[in-house]
Amino acid sequence: RGEPALHIKYGVPIAVNAGDGLYALCYGALRENERLLGVERAWRIFEELAELSVVLVEGQAMDLEFKDRREMSESEVIETLRKKTAKLFAVSAKCGAIAGSASNEVAEELGSAWEDIGIAFQIRDDILNVIGEEGKYGKSIGGDIAEGKPTLLLINCLEQCELDEKENIYKCLHNYDKQKIEEVVNLFRKYGSIDYSEEIAMRYLREGTDKIREIEGKEELKERMVALAEYFVEREK
């Protein structure tokens, strides 16, 4: 974050090839799990990651579809966030539980909790993209607007604003104009989209941390997970 992406520094072909190489390295790590964890747990982790790969592609497809469609419901936005970001949190938690010999029930409960936290994390990240300090945030402020990403902020605002305001927002998508982006952010404020998104993020955070506290296990470890989750969602960068 805050540094040029690989495809910017070295070009798309090298970046794509490097990504393929990382996949190969992942398979090597998964193979090593068989020695470290045994066949059963290693295979369960492999299954989780294989399923995750499909879900991530589905989430990216939903994201890309919005660029042509320009219409998306709030539930569709949340589902996109779930598939693009939250499932990464969920599967990471589940794989950690599996590696630590937790029961299937605990692994599923942790996955469910961290999926909620992952949604909260992404909503918070989208909020920071429009109100954060560029020096702290590490990315261009308003970049999500310029890229035409379907965020909860954007969809909530589009559902409320006047037709002429909606047309002005559409003109800003895929066009990084700092002044125009500021106008869109002001519309977010006008229609309460920032505050609304904060409320939704905190709701998912509470649901996730409540689930963590309900899981059978050591209280100290659960509170450490809760503290980590709160940091993810309350961060400024």
TrEMBL record:
SUPFAM superfamilies, A to Z: Terpenoid synthases
GO molecular function annotations of the record: metal ion binding; prenyltransferase activity
Pfam family, one: polyprenyl_synt
Cofactor: Mg(2+)
Keyword Transferase belongs to the record: yes
Keyword Iron: no
PANTHER family, alphabetized: GERANYLGERANYL PYROPHOSPHATE SYNTHASE (PTHR12001), SHORT CHAIN ISOPRENYL DIPHOSPHATE SYNTHASE (PTHR12001:SF85)
Protein name: Polyprenyl synthetase family protein
Organism of provenance: marine sediment metagenome
Native organism taxonomy: unclassified sequences, metagenomes, ecological metagenomes
